[in-house]
């Protein structure tokens, strides 16, 4: 039989753990978003002048590029469509006259390492890269059960969400290690925490981003490199197709909030609204899945509305 003192000890351990989790959750909401003063990104980058943003012609990536340009970084925009890259470059140059902007058109469904070397890594090696924002990501045209998703779409989601973050991070790290400074921001998703049906490859690929970043934080713990994982909830963009609301921020508001947390917290959602929502991650899994399914219905509704509007035009 288990003695009373063992039961008491277990109860105290459990209580201490729950108190720790409770205060940790409060800290993660309050400190980065309401108390901390944003850090000087130029200092964290070791004075390096260039920032790279992938998937930077739309949504969150475009707003990261704008914000970092306003902070005085030269920007390398990488996305798949040259015309969109040119127009984002022009927009940034109009607002930020004293910085340089370069563009690289690359379709990240191409995982060929020689192509990465030729088109991207050769450029990276010639510049002092202070910040890498691994933002590019792909989700489903319409979420569905795995066997109903087009095989190529499924493969593209896995490739785009996992390969660029690993190759580009490996490509910038040598110069950051040498400089003993640098910032890498890996954009994951709240989907990394929830086993949400109908987005299996997306959710699993985002869990990869979280795990990958956590391991790198250990590997490069003494290198001066800041590695941040961001796990947003809904942000109003082409990908999510949801409208701006109290919980679904505009890409601009989201990026501005998230950038303020660089160097302050290693893994976060990026804004206080999503940090509050993330309290749900402490719920039992069945409840979490239930809420995730409700959220997914919102996406499907938004996709339907968009398709209807497109047909009416
Ligand atoms: N929006 C959300 O609610 C939400 C929530 C959680 C996580 N996230 C994550 O946040 C990141 C940004 O999402 P977003 O909503 O801002 O996306 P978005 O508005 O759809 O923008 C995606 C960007 O990536 C580029 N891109 C897409 N596929 C590409 C490819 N194969 N090769 C090169 N570039 C490609 C797009 O270029 P084109 O303009 O040429 O298409 C665009 O610039 C993603 O990693 C996403 O998973 C978003």
TrEMBL record:
A single cellular component GO annotation: endoplasmic reticulum
CDD domains tied to this protein: 17beta-HSD1_like_SDR_c
Organism of this sequence: Panagrolaimus davidi
SUPFAM superfamilies, per the entry: NAD(P)-binding Rossmann-fold domains
Name the record gives this protein: Steroid dehydrogenase
InterPro entries (UniProt xref): NAD(P)-bd_dom_sf, Sc_DH/Rdtase_CS, SDR_fam
Pathway connected to this protein: Lipid metabolism; fatty acid biosynthesis
Family: Belongs to the short-chain dehydrogenases/reductases (SDR) family. 17-beta-HSD 3 subfamily.
Molecular-function GO term, any one: oxidoreductase activity
Coiled-coil segments: none
Any Gene Ontology biological process: fatty acid elongation
Keywords tagged on the record: Fatty acid biosynthesis, Fatty acid metabolism, Lipid biosynthesis, Lipid metabolism, NADP, Oxidoreductase, Steroid biosynthesis
